[in-house]
Prior knowledge:
This protein is an alpha+beta fold.
Amino acid sequence: MSWHDLSDGVEYELEDIISILERRVSTGGIDNVDEKKECIEKIKIKREESAIFQPKSSGWGRSPFNPNAWMTKEGDPFFPEDE
């Protein structure tokens, strides 16, 4: 069972993603809090209104804090390599 209840291949509004991630950071029990907060800040400055949760592996790969787990509606990486 996952702590976030996000479903693979589903599009989520950015405000909902931010809320889920901020709630997880505030409840504690996670490592690398500064990295997690940095991920949230990167999402906050995105111009898109939504993103698709599309993890490609297990473990860390399924974490919504993993930038590689998110895609745009067009199927492109939500966080391109050059950002």
